[in-house]
Each structure stands twice: as structure tokens, then as C-alpha cells.
């Protein structure tokens, strides 16, 4: 059994072309999991990821701040305690509002791939 305290997991810079700005960190919560990626992504104010989709569904659990989760058809403002399920193959983005930092846990199958569809 693994027990992890989220507030004790180191935040490491997570700069990828997927993000609209450099103020993003990652906290790897369960590196020993063989089936799932369970990580926290922390976004600076106004930073988001670009439109993308996954080859398996993704679960987001908002842990801090206020953010936006968007598909091609809608945008939803989300905050602490909200849980979002993004179906396999659905184009989407998520990130912080201009006024708030934003953090979420994401849970995905380790074998899931990501395809970025926005430059």
C-alpha cells in the first residue's frame, strides 16, 4: 500500500509545448503505479494547455484555484471539489483563469497517449 500526502510531493517544472506559458509544475503522486498516471498539474494565472485529446478517458479532480475546462462546444468554469471526466478522443483544454492559479489531479491509464491539435 502507498499513502501519499499531496502537500509533501515536490513540484517540478513542467515546461512542454502543450502549455501556453512556462508557469506550470507537476507533482507525481503515485510513481509506483503500474496502471495509472496520478499527478497534480499546477497552472499559473492565465496558463492553460492547448487543444488536445487522449487515447483513453481522463479524470480531473480540482484541488486548487479556479480554472476552465473546454471542449470545441463548451467552456465550464471549475473550482475546488469539481470532478471532470473527459471521454477518450474528445478534443479539450484546461487551465487557469486570468485571475487565479489552478491545480488539478489527473488520472489516466499509463498507456494512454496525448495528441496535441493546437499550435
The helical percent reads under 10%
Distance between the termini: 41 Å
Low-confidence stretches: none
CATH class: Mainly Beta
Largest sheet: number of strands, sense, barrel closure? 8 strands, antiparallel
What is the string of helix and strand elements?
EEEEEEEEEE
* Multimerization state: single chain
State the fourth-level CATH superfamily.
Answer: Jelly Rolls
Computed over alpha carbons, the radius of gyration is 13 Å
Query: Could you name the CATH topology?
Result: Jelly Rolls
User: How many domains?
Assistant: 1
The global form is globular
**Helical stretch tally:** 0
Number of strands: 10
Strand composition percent:
over 45%
Structure characteristics:
single chain, 119 residues, mainly beta, Jelly Rolls, 8-stranded antiparallel β-sheet, two-stranded antiparallel ribbon, 0% helix, 48% strand
Task: Please explain how this structure is put together.
The chain has 119 residues and is mainly beta. It has a single domain (12-112), classed as Jelly Rolls (Sandwich). Helix content is 0%, strand content 48%. The protein contains no helices and ten strands. It has strands at residues 12-13, 24-28, 36-43, 52-54, 58-71, 75-79, 83-86, 92-96, 102-109, 114-116. The strands form two sheets. Strands 1, 2, 3, 5, 6, 7, 8 and 9 form an eight-stranded antiparallel beta sheet that branches. It has a two-stranded antiparallel ribbon with strand order 4-10. The radius of gyration is 13 Å and the shape is globular. The mean pLDDT is 97.
Amino acid at each position: 500500500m502507498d499513502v501519499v500526502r499531496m502537500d509533501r510531493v515536490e513540484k517540478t517544472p513542467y515546461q512542454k509545448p502543450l502549455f501556453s506559458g512556462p508557469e506550470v509544475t507537476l507533482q507525481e503522486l503515485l510513481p509506483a503505479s503500474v496502471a495509472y498516471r496520478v499527478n497534480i498539474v499546477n497552472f499559473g494565472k492565465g496558463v492553460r494547455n492547448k487543444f488536445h485529446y487522449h487515447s483513453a478517458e481522463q479524470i480531473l479532480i480540482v484541488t486548487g484555484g479556479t480554472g476552465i475546462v473546454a471542449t470545441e462546444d463548451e467552456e465550464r468554469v471549475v473550482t475546488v471539489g469539481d470532478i471532470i471526466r473527459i471521454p477518450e478522443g474528445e478534443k479539450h483544454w484546461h487551465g487557469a483563469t486570468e485571475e487565479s492559479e489552478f491545480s488539478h489531479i489527473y488520472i489516466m491509464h499509463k498507456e494512454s497517449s496525448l495528441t496535441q491539435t493546437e499550435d
